[in-house]
Recover the amino acids of this structure.
């Protein structure tokens, strides 16, 4: 007995703490981690901004194209 608890129970508690620590480490730093999620959200925001810019450029180019097309004889 250690600290008034059977040795088997202490070993189970230590094992559970180690397993939970490893699990928390994987959640925070693994391939499906919080840091990866935050990075992907930042990347998504960047891409959404870039898409808006490209849509505006596309609209301007389409407008110019159709204006030029109307000037050409058919």
């Amino acid at each position: 007995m250690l600290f008034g608890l059977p040795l088997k129970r202490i070993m189970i508690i230590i094992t559970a703490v180690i397993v939970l620590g490893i699990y928390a480490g994987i959640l925070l730093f693994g391939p499906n981690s919080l840091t990866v999620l935050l990075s992907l959200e930042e990347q998504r925001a960047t891409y959404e901004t870039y898409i808006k810019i490209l849509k505006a450029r596309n609209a301007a180019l389409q407008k110019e194209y159709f204006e030029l097309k109307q000037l050409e004889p058919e």
